Amino acid sequence: MARAGSDHRIAGVRARDFGLAVQHGTTQPFNLVHMDNRLPTVVVVDDAPEVRALVRTHLRLSGAFEVVGEGADGADAIELVHQFRPDLLVMDMSMPDLDGIDALPGVLAVSPTTRVVVFTGFEGEGLAELARSMGASAFLEKSVSLDVLVDRLRDVHEGRAPAAPPAPASSLAAVGEQVTETDREVLDEHLERFREVFDEAAIGMATLTLSGGIVRANRALGKLIEHPHEDLVGVDYAALMAGHGELLDEALAEIQHKQVDVIRVEHGVSGLRERKVMSTLAPVRDRAGLPLYVFLQVQDITEQRAAEDELRRSEERFRLLVETVEDYAIFMLDPQGHVVSWNAGAERAKGYRADEIIGRHFRTFYSAELQESGHPERELEAALRDGRYAEEGWRVRKDGSRFWANVLITAVFDDGGNHVGFAKITRDVTSRLESEESLRQSEERFRLLVDAVSDYAIFMLDPDGHIVSWNAGAQRTKGYTADEIIGRHFRVFYPPELQEARHPEHELEIALREGRYGEEGWRVRKDGSRFWANVLITAVHNDVGKLVGFSKVTRDTTTQYLAQQEQERAAQSLAEANEALQTLNMQLRHAASDQSQFLAVTAHELRTPATVLGGSADVLSKHWGALGEDERLTLLDGMTTSAERMRRLLSDLLTASRLDANALRLSPEPTALQPLLQAAAATALQAASNQVVTVQAPDDVTVMADGARLAQVVDNLLDNALKHGRSPVHVDVTVAGDQAEIRVADAGPGVRPDVRSRLFGRFATGDELGGTGLGLFIVRELARAQGGDATYEDPTPERPGGAFLVTVPLA
């Protein structure tokens, strides 16, 4: 970590013979003298000069090593190792410009025989393993005593490198636990809200492992599967897919190997009742884009698919009836079910002549088991009750052979509304041939059938689009009687905007050119109301190919259309909710990551001064007489610097805590700005004597502020500029309206664009390890608490490094 006043000079130390080793605690005297009567050489690299001084002095007093060089960052380490080829390198991990981990390969490249010991304020087995994997011989935390450091250097030099001892418990652990618990409570609150939405949702939901195992399921999914939702945990979802588990396997494979956001799979589900569902799988990914688990939504589409299937079957039957009537057996029944008419198609399909079948009951066409169960009579009951009855099933010919029949029975009424019988249409789907003669013979019965069909509007147009026929279904759908509509142009069924665009005429042109035209769209009834229609127009030609008109079939599908629109809206809402949930999840992960980094960095920031204070005090108390005057002053200066560093860190933590708790008390009063800034600059230069800080402020600018807190704001900005920027640092004051503007700028390159958006956030430290991430947060919050604000101004030609701007109300 870059620090004001750090000694960045590379120092070579003259080799000296210290004679006997100094005894430390229980450590026995020793002297690692080489065969050529020289001590093992050591280079010490740390960005804190007080740490270097402490280690250098302790190694000298041990009488076991000779410190031949010192440096402040990874680049210094490489240069020093190349120059001195020392036996040992004691190096910190976190340093400016080039840290220890990044410098390790270069160090070992220029001096393969040098043994590297990492001596750092950071803890963690992961860091130790990383250092060792990159060539370090040992990993020590700065919380250990310097005697342990000496012992470890001896072990490494002699070829023994035991694992680093565990670091002592830190008093910061209690603080970390408290912060973690607070954050955990917030996370638990959000998770509880998600669980409530998840458990009470009307749609089936679950979370799956990447292999398809159910981790959590809500009540709606349990109801759909017809199992208690608690029992679904641990079940492989593929086992619930009614034999379609391979579809889940394919979807999960695609999620893991492709960057897909959503996959939809339609399948059946196991249960007491047959169900069709649409499963939507959405992977939840980590920052690297790798899937962590799968969020599953399951919608019951049984009724939707059944309606669609029925619509397709009905449309197919109706198309065959209108366009290929020669394939149908069409005949009439009296109200009791006796055959009263017969056509050639019926004779061809069933094998009976008219004189053989007229007068007999139509149950003759059914198998013995269906006759015994009363199935034919139930068909007529259903047709009379519902207007029509349709099914497919086995029927029996005169010769006893069976054929699969598509059957439609429609109740027929006369003009007075009296029930006069049934029109029955049967198609032999095992043979699609029917002669033109049978079509002519059935023409009249076909007319009765069409007139009786009420689910479809069926009518004919002449070549110009005028209506020439009308059926009961058309009257029910569109509201016109036959005498009201025949002779009028069919554009009357279209909204005004489609009439103006000549859409009806374009439909006929397409039908004439391509043979048919189909669409869905809004149509208008006689009373002006609109309905969503499924439309089919077919060009009709005579035997010589001349156009004689168009057949038009219209079905009211408003209910299905509105249901589909509602489903799409619901799906969109669910997708938006899922996206919001993923965003919240990402924010929580970011918050946890920031806090973890804050704890690690704060521990590092405390360990270094604590190590210096403890180590310097130990050396001074045990070796006062052996130390030179300069060494004593150096150690005492290091203790002073470390104590001030700890005081400042604790002050930042206390201020941030009071800001969070709204417990900060301010005493605003008229404050002269120039002397306050001059004092802040002088304080900053005490810790950075080799730096330059200039102040340009009018002497008549007075602000309404708490002087101590405003000084803290300026101190933090100057400290930030001296640590992370480049000298000289300029402090300028201007007046804009009722605000004084304080700008702090340095000669560095400025803040990277990708960091600016979170610059003033709590725990924001950028990519570098160093600082608690509270300094700029405190700057902004203190400025706002006094009626001003703190921002970062992007670089300009006048200020290539940008500037930090603080505004304060004028007095």
Can you put this structure into words, describing what you see?
This protein has 811 residues and is of the alpha+beta class. The protein has 5 domains: 11-157, Rossmann fold (3-Layer(aba) Sandwich), CATH 3.40.50.2300; 201-300, Beta-Lactamase, CATH 3.30.450.20; 325-559, Beta-Lactamase (2-Layer Sandwich), CATH 3.30.450.20; 573-654, Signal transduction histidine kinase, dimerisation/phosphotransfer (DHp) domain (Helix Hairpins, Orthogonal Bundle), CATH 1.10.287.130; 664-809, Histidine kinase-like ATPase, C-terminal domain (Heat Shock Protein 90). The protein is built from 25 helices and 26 strands. Helix 1 packs across helix 21, helix 22 (673-686) packs across helix 23 and helix 23 runs antiparallel to helix 25 (775-785). The longest helix is centred in the last third of the chain and has 66 residues, at 558-623. The chain is elongated. Residues 1-31, 162-179 and 432-439 have low confidence and may be disordered.
Describe the structure using short key phrases.
811 residues; alpha+beta; Rossmann fold; Beta-Lactamase; six-stranded mixed beta sheet; five-stranded antiparallel beta sheet; 25 helices; elongated
